[in-house]
Each structure stands twice: as C-alpha cells, then as structure tokens.
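Anyone have tokens for E3 UFM1-protein ligase 1 homolog isoform X1? Sequence:
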Amino acid sequence: MDEELLELQRQFEFAQQAKSSIRLSERNVVELVQKLQQLGIIDFDLLHTTSGKEYITPEQLRKEMAAEIRKLGRVSLIDLADITGVDLYHVETQAGHIVSNDSTLMLINGEIISNSYWDIVAEEINERLQECSQIVLAEIAAQLQVGSELVVSVLEPRLGTLVKGRLEGGQLYTPAYVARVSAMVRGAARGIFVPTNLSALWNSLQDLLQETDGASGVAVEGSFFQSLFNGLVKEGEILGSLRAGVHWTPSVFAMAQKECVDSFLSQNSYISYEALQKLGIPQPVQYLQARYPEGIPLVTLFVHPSIIEMLDASAEDAIERGSWMDSLSVLPASFGSQDASKILSLCPSVQKSLKSSKAIILGESYIFSNGFVKDLFDHLEKGIETLNLPAFASTGQSDNLHVIKDASVRHDTLPESNETGTGKQAVEKGSKKKKGKFTGNTKVEAAESDPDYHELAPTKSKKNQKKGKAPTSLQLSDSKLGLRKDDRMEESHNAISEEWLIPKIMALIPDLEEQGIGDPETILVPLASYLRPMLLNSLKERRKAAFTQNAQRMKRVLDNLQHKIDESFLNIQLYEKALDLFEDDPSTSVLLHKHLLRTTATSMVDTLLLDLDIHNKLRNGMEVEEPQKPKKSEPASLSPGDRAALAKSLARPLSVKALALVEALEAKRVETFMTALRAIAEESGLILKKLDKKLERSLLHSYRKDLTSQISDETDPISLLPKVVSLLYVQIHGRALQAPGRAISIAVSRLKDKLDDPAFKVLADYQAATVALLALMSGTTSSEEDCTSDRILSKRELLENLVPALKGLVLGTSQPRLV
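Reply: yep, here.
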C-alpha cells in the first residue's frame, strides 16, 4: 500500500515538472468550463469570485464561512463577502443555509452570531455587574449595537449561571442589591397602617435610593419595587390585601375596620354607609352583606333585624289604637325619610295592615290607621257640606263639562258633578279668572238627564229646521261649551286645594306640635294630598245627586229665559230702527241710543242675568226658591253693582261676556250692546231671532194698538205727550220711537213737515205748555210754594183743556198730515 502511494507521488511530481506543449488563456479556460457544464461533465454548481479568476463551489463557500464564524463568533455578512471574495448575494444565501442547519447560530441584522459569542458577552456583563451592582440593559445594547429585546432574550437563560444577578424593569441587579432593596420594601410596607397607594410609596423609595447611591446610582423602576413587594406578600412576610395592583390595605387596618364596624353595629344595631366610606371601605353595601348576611341594607344605612322588630311593635300599637305614627320619631336620628319608608315596608304588621286596608303609609315615614283617616275625612266632609256651594261656581263647571261630554256618548250614565273645593279663598282668587263655562253645558246636562231628551232633541241640520225641528239652546250649548272641556278640567282640581285643606286638618288635629313634630307641614302635605281626591269624589257625588234633582227645573228656567229673550230682542230691534231717523243729529241720536239702552236693554240684561244666576245655583246643587213671577208692569230691576256681581259669579268664558254686556249698557250706541248680546247668546247657547218684515209688521201693529189703548185711558197730561209722539211716528214713519223727555222737543219739531199747521200747532202748544209746567214743578222752593202752586195749577188746567185736541190728533178718524 505504501509502495503504491509512493508511486503515485512520483507520477504526480513528474506531471508537474513536465512542460506543456499547449498553453490555454483564462478566456479559454472559462469557455472550457462552460462547455464542460453544457456537456454535463461538471454536474455541480460553480460560483464566480469577485476577481473573476477563480471558481468556488457552494459547499466550499459554506465551509469557509463556517470556519470564519467559529473563529470570530460574530461576523457580518459584508465581512464574509470580503473575506471569501464572493458576491454578497451568494453569501446571504449560504448564510441562511448555515443558520438553519446550526441551532447555535442566529442571523440578526445582517450578522451571524454564535452562542459562544453570547457566552463570552454574558461573562463580561457579569464581571461588570459585580463591580457596579446594577447595569442598565440599554447601555449594554448600545455597546453591542443590538436591540434591548435581544439582550434580554440572550441574558434571561443565562441568569443564575453565567450572569449572577436579577433582571427587572430593563436593569440587571446583583443578589446583594436585590436583597438590600427587598429589605427597604419590606420595612416600608410593614410601617404602613392605613390604606395606601403603592405608587407614592415607590416614589419615596426611589428618592431614598438616589440619596443613598448618589450620582453613580441608577434610577430604579417602580415595577422592580412592585415585583419585590408581590414576592414578599406571596411569601407571607407582609400581611394585607392588594386591590387593583396598587391599593394596599394592611391587615392591621382591616382588623381595626372590622372591630370598629362590629362594635358600632353591636351597640346601635345599625351603621351608615358614610361611616364605612370614612373608614376606607369603598363598597359598604357589598362589604356589610358579605360579613352580616342577616342584616338588611337600606338607602343610607345597614340595619340589624332587631330595628325592624322594634318599629314593627310601635306601628302595630298605633294601628290597633286607630291612631298614627311617625316612624322617624321611633327610629334613631340617623335614619332618613327614604330609610324609614323602606324599613316600614319590611315590618310584618305593616305589610299585613296594608294588605287588609287597615293602614296606609303617607309621606314616606308616616303610617296612619284607616280608622283615623276615615274619622278625619268624615269631619272634613261635614265641613264641606256646610260651606256655601256658590263659592265653587267659578271652578265647579269644568268637571261637569267633561261628564256631559261622556254622557252624550254613553246616554246611559248620569252626568258627574264637579270636583271642586270651597272657601273664601276660592271666591277671592277665582272671581276674575274662573268665570262660568256652565250655562250652555248645563242645558245639555239638563236635557240629557231627561229620559225623553234623546227622542225629542232635534239636530242642528237645515233639514230638520225646515221640518219645524229647530235646534234648541240645549244642543247649541253642547256644541259651544263642550269644546273647552280640557281647560275646565284643569280648573276644577284647584277648588279644594291642599293649601285650603291644611289649616282645616290642623284645626281637627291640634296635637301635632305636642307630639314632637317640629314642622307640621311635613305630615299635613301628604295627608292633604291623600284626602283631597276623596273629598273631591264626595263632592262630585253630592252634586251629581243635586244636579239630577234640579235637572227638570233647570230645563224650565232655560226655556223661560229663551222665551223672554225672544220677546225682548225683537222689541229692541224694532225700537232700534226708529233711531235711524235721527242719525243726522248726533247729539239727539246719542240721547236716543242711551235711552234705549237704559230702558229696554237694561230690563233685558237684568232678566238674562237673574235667570242665568238661578240656573247656576241649581246646577251647583243649591236650594233655590221658586221665584215669583213678576207682573208685566213690574219688570226685573237690578242696580249696576248687582249686575256686575251676578256676571262675575258665572264661569269664566260666560262671565267675561256677561261683564262685557253689562258694560255695553253704558255705551253710546245700541250696536255695541247688540254685539255683546250676540256674544253671550252664542256662548250660552241661546238663540236670538232676527226681526224680519213680517214680524216687524206684526209688532208694529201690536205696538200701535197698545199705544192707542194707553192714550185713550191716559189721564195724566204730562205722560200723554210722549205716547202721542210715539204713536205719531208709528202712523207717519212706520217706526216705533222710544224717546226720553229731553228728546221730545226734537221729535216734535221733526213732525212739522208731516202734519198740517193746525195739527202741528196743537202738538207744539201742548209740548210748550208741558215744558213750562215741568219747569215750574222742578223750580219750586219753600219760599215761593204758594205762588208757584197757583201757577202750576193754572198750567195743568191749560194742559187738561188741550188733552182732547191732542188725543184727537191720533185717535180721530182722520189724521191731519201733509200730502
């Protein structure tokens, strides 16, 4: 074997020493290699070097790179490309293969680093750490020109072996330094006796370390302290509870909390949530329920069941005695009204009494027996019965409107009475604001209370009117006043107000202050609120009964009023036409207008207001005597004050229009009065008949016949003149003139062109003699009485002598006139 090897060596040496007969250029060699690759003789990859004079296989490149890595431990790919003389691309490719096949290598940021390199670095770091006690990883990363994360990932598996230290918060600490800081954390934590935020504690420890280590010290992160603290808590060297990672409650404080809560609760049987919050317990309800499952949480307090037992006994006693009790007077002063309300609802006797309707709870903390409340209600109800019901008229109409609206739909229900209150306050405050909306709807109520109403009442269509079924005032009032139901409903509840009830209750329960209630309003307000609906319902029922009884009478009053209004309104329209003859004389026209307003119009308004007042009283359940029918010669007469008072007593919409009608009596034109009259008629549902030609002729005939009869029977020479003048105007102009004494002379002068001279002379002489007589009568004094009486007698005799001639002007068969 050795001989063969030696023979081969000799042949190789001989081949090297032999001179070639053919020399190849570099280009020929390159072409030759390419040709061999094409022929497949060279079946492996070849890489060009950067010099272009050499070829290298990938396997050889990997071997050279691996050798360089083992030699240096950390080498960049750029340096490997320079060392091997191969393009960087091929180096990067082969580097990937090398690192993937060798787990001890890593490719980081264009560098291949071996574990041996990191071991050497770890040893160096450990030597430095032992010298400095602490090192910041950011500095090491900067020196090694790598990222801090890489340094951490490399050091963590070597901690405790190659690196004798602790890694925390981006810093390395020696065990001695860790023990030192742990001792500081332990001492600081054990010195805490109240709940503390650990972040503030760590700041204090950082300041202390900086003072101790001086400028050479490295700032310690709070996470390092927190980690040490968590370890101490886990080992049981520090006792307490940690909440949300930073809120520390020492066990000594928790024990003090528990003892304080237990002590207070055992002594008082209750404790407030506020007290627990002051003790540092953030969720007092959950804390108390967990510790005392038998306790009862209230709104602001946590109580022991013994409190309920005590209150239950007092409440049961008050209910059995038929009295009342303020639970706050039994409970400790710390209890609020909401707490009292909740704890009352938990008392067994109270629950039983509420279910059996033996008691009620008012105002959160007051419990009343039903017997006590019923007695109080009975007294108040009797007090309301003795009140003057018209005091409620200003507000008593609204609820009836609502009821009538319902009654018009159901037909089988009686109209409800109003929910009202009474008293002087209701009259004084409501006199201007709450005026009658009742007239029209009262008519509806009267009609609907009549069982025959729905069969007889005609509709408002023109078809029915043509058939003789004209709509009555009852129907019109329903359509007019039913629209204001909502406004009146709101007013009705203000009649019996809580403010009105409170002094009444005080008068019936004078011992409120004696029983220790500092502010009686606290109990009176809820009690009044509870009693008010009951009193309103009682009043409604009484009024419903009274209304049912008065329904037929109310209907008669309205029917009679309609008849009176028809007659008066036709007369005033007839008299108004005569005023047109004097429109060219403003002063006389105003005089005639005022006279008509003060006579016929005033009488009509008095009748209207009196009947509406009777209707109002009947509607409100008052006892009204059947009025005596006045004689035809004695029409109803009221003073201006009486008219205003009656107008104000009506409900609001009607009252406003009634006051406007009363004020229109003092106007200068009849048109103003007619407008106000139509407004109140529309509001109350009355119908005003318009004067047509046929009615006018009929009324003029009756008026003329009546005047003729009066003139024939008249014996007073002074009263005769205006009647004769009026009859002359009927005969000549076809107008019914109503003229006062001051306008007679103007009226006479207007007849000059209508009478022949003898007739006018008789009229003028009679008028002059009448004026002279009246002047003498008005100017008589005590000193001139004898002389004047003679002159009066002589003038009267003169007039009496002229009476036949004057009567002959209008009563004769032929009446002298100008053609």
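The two ends are 189 Å apart (CA to CA).
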